[in-house]
Write a structure and sequence with these properties.
The two termini are about 30 Å apart. Strand 17 (about 185) and strand 18 form a beta hairpin. The strands form 5 sheets. The protein has an 11-stranded mixed β-sheet with strand order 6-9-12-15-20-23-26-29-32-34-35. The chain has a 9-stranded parallel β-sheet with strand order 7-10-13-16-21-24-27-30-33, with no helix packed on it. With about 375 residues, it is of the alpha/beta class. The chain has 3 domains: about 5-110, 3-Layer(aba) Sandwich (Udp-n-acetylmuramoylalanyl-d-glutamate--2,6- Diaminopimelate Ligase, Chain: A, domain 1), CATH 3.40.1390.10; about 115-225, UDP N-Acetylglucosamine Acyltransferase, domain 1; about 245-364, UDP N-Acetylglucosamine Acyltransferase, domain 1 (3 Solenoid). It has 7 helices and 35 strands. Helix 1 packs across helix 4 (about 95-110).
Length: about 375
């Protein structure tokens, strides 16, 4: 089997797929659907009419598409292929974007293989560094810090009072483990700083992007569970606990002692009040201010943030990509909602979709 074909990569990944077209086209590179050529792999995760037209008119030789449009593509492609000499292969899968990512990794070997310690890095005598790690220029690993195996601590990172797990990446400029912001006034209104004795615990397979600030705990630890990703310019305050596989996009501020569940999505520049709890599979719209607890699988937006999950019309695949919510649960919630109350979704939905538009764009 040619190692550059779609079939070769899909067999490695063990995904279910359906082919339409010439399945022996070699893949030389990846490209956006509107910029590809005959040997490029592209994808489209939409089933909208205009996107189907973009798929059919693309010059990319191999295109990953959603399974539910196979009949539409088959019917329309008969006419297009009869008027074009370009070889083309349509590959129908459940999640084209995910399969594209997986194939791109196999093709390009995106894994960051940097290892070693820069001569300009500073490591405290009591710090422990695992195997096959990388420490960049001016990285500082403070007293008592622990860094796990295969972890990248990039340039100008400051680690204090922290334990970092295996296979993590901390991008340049982040500061992890400084004291949090907590004061008490005395009788003369002077501010007395609350003591901080906790750590920052960063579990395995976590990525922290550039210029973030993560504060150590005061009397307990600040904890980030396995698989979570934190975008640039975020602030995580002291004693915060963030669950597994949660995505925190750029500019988010999380107040102290807040608990955030698993598989959540926090939209751009949202603010989470201190001492509240956000459940699992929650989506927070861009620019929202969350000031009260949020239940599992809810979608909130606005200032102050309120639940909008029954008032919007967003495709289940978008919700799944952001919050990990299952299509089956979403469909059942919609059925129950319509039985209880007749929402004017088309009218109200425009307002709430406008609130969430920044959040949706970050999945592109």
């Amino acid at each position: 089997m040619d190692e550059r074909t779609a079939e070769f990569y899909l067999e490695q990944l063990e995904y279910n797929y359906t082919f339409l077209g010439q399945n022996r086209i070699p893949i030389d590179n990846i490209a956006p659907i509107d910029k590809g050529t005959s040997s490029h792999l592209s994808f489209c995760s939409s089933d909208k009419r205009e996107d189907i037209e973009a798929i059919l008119n693309s010059n990319s030789g191999i295109i990953l598409c959603k399974k539910n449009i196979v009949d539409v593509i088959r019917q329309k492609n008969k006419f297009i292929s009869s008027n074009s000499s370009l070889p083309k292969l349509f590959v129908f899968v459940d999640n084209p974007r995910l399969v594209f990512i997986k194939i791109a990794r196999l093709m390009k070997d995106h894994k960051d293989n940097r290892k070693g310690v820069s001569k300009h890095a500073i490591i405290a005598d009591s710090a422990k560094i695992g195997r096959d790690c990388y420490l960049g220029d001016l990285a500082i690993v403070g007293e008592g810090c622990i860094v796990g195996d295969n972890t990248i601590i990039d340039s100008r990172i400051v680690l204090k009072n922290s334990i970092v797990g295996n296979n993590c990446t901390l991008q340049s400029g982040s500061i992890v483990g400084e004291d949090g912001f907590a004061f008490e006034r005395d009788n003369n209104m002077n501010l007395e700083k609350f003591p901080h004795y906790g750590k920052v615990i960063i579990k395995n397979n976590i990525e922290i992007f550039a210029n973030c600030s993560i504060a150590r705990g005061s009397l307990t630890n600040t904890v980030i569970e396995e698989g979570t990703k934190i975008d640039a310019l975020c602030h995580i305050a002291h004693n915060v606990h963030i669950g597994k596989n949660t995505q925190i996009t750029a500019g988010v501020v999380v107040g102290g002692s807040t608990i955030i569940g698993n598989n959540c999505w926090l939209g751009l520049n949202s603010t989470i009040k201190h001492k509240i709890k956000i459940g699992d599979d929650v989506i927070v719209g861009s620019g929202s201010s969350v000031i009260q607890n949020v239940e599992d699988k809810d979608i909130v937006a606005g200032n102050p943030a309120k639940s909008i999950k029954h008032k919007i019309n967003i495709s289940d695949d978008k919700l799944f990509l952001m919050g990990g919510q299952s299509n089956e649960n979403r469909n059942e919630e919609h059925r129950q909602t319509f039985q209880k109350k007749d929402y004017s979704i088309k009218l109200k939905g425009l307002t709430y979709l406008y609130i969430l538009i920044g959040t949706l764009l970050t999945t592109a």
